[in-house]
Design a protein that fits this description.
Elements: H1 2-22, H2 26-39, H3 42-48, H4 50-59, H5 61-70, H6 72-76, H7 80-86, E1 88-89, E2 96-97, H8 100-128, H9 130-149, H10 154-182, H11 185-212, H12 220-227, H13 233-242, H14 247-252, H15 256-266, H16 272-292, H17 304-322, H18 325-329, H19 331-337, H20 342-361
Antiparallel strand pairs: 1-2
Helix pairs in contact: 1-16, 2-16, 4-10, 5-10, 5-11, 8-9, 8-10, 9-10, 9-13, 10-11, 11-20, 15-16, 19-20
Main location: membrane
Protein name: Major facilitator superfamily (MFS) profile domain-containing protein
GO molecular function: carbohydrate:proton symporter activity
Amino acid sequence: MAARVEVSSAQKVADHELEEKLGLSAIHEARLATEAEHAQTLWQALSENRNGVFWSVLISLSIIMEGYDTILMGNFMAYPEFQQKFGSYYGPEIGWQVSGPWQTGLNMASTVGGVFGGLLNGYFAAKYGYRWVLIGAMALLNGFIFVVFFAPNATVMVIGQILCGLCWGVFATLSPAYASEVCPTNLRGYLTTYVNLCWAIGQLIAAGVLTGCLDIQGDMGYKIPFAIQWLWPTPVMVIAYLAPESPWFLVRADRIEEAKHSIKRLSGNKTEEQMSNQLAMMVHTTKLEAEATTGATYADCFKGINLRRTEIVCLAFAGQIFSGSTFAYTPTYFFTTAGMETANAFYLSLGAKAMAFIGTIL
């Protein structure tokens, strides 16, 4: 009973603030926007939000880059030129190998950076918006790639991977969030699935590049795949600069006029009335959430009914790891260790990435 009173109180406060901001008819407009969104077919949603879909697809290019970047290091463990640069010679039977401790350090460095990058993105995106955080992270990545490209030893390579991982953590959390906010709920499932497709595309490109560079002698054999990373940041920075900011972020920042302009840029063939209703719905939802979560802490995620929700979310994401995706990123090293020829191991990896691409589409 207490929970119902709490929600009711939050509802009243949100309704009052909505009327103050957008007028007495705002609550009715918000209700109309919600009902219209739920009644839309897929094609209607695509037609009315085609610009939002367009910008979401472009922003998600950062995930293609991340998919490419993140599988390089694991596959380099089976790369002859990389093994000779950063490994040791273990005799004619084993040959050149990167030692176990350094393999762990090199493979996990970007993951460590990614954890902190994801956490930092939550703070900075809420404060500065998605566009400027993406631009800043891309600019930093442009510089950090120099560290891994010119790394003279494994220690510097680990440092470079941690720094790059900070940026990759930002991209991994920013792109799905942007995709979910610039389009209505009935399109979010498709656009967030497209984000996963971008991972598969990036990994497929990386597998192709690695296979193609196998016969290149000297340090450039592994440096060329690193250098290709420079192709992405600048174009994505330009896209992020031109893209509209998430109207949800602008509403949360109380920048209502800018949110209205952003909705216009993201809309396809929506009428002025529909866009006004959508803005009213965003303002109302934001105020309602703010009132309902006043005084809430992270500890509340582990109490009562919220604990069940936390478990579902954690297991849904952990399922990717439990299914063996970590090994799927670095199959070439295991194949070569088992006795497979290096070239065949990379061909098999390329085929596996192609299957991942097809599986995501299906």
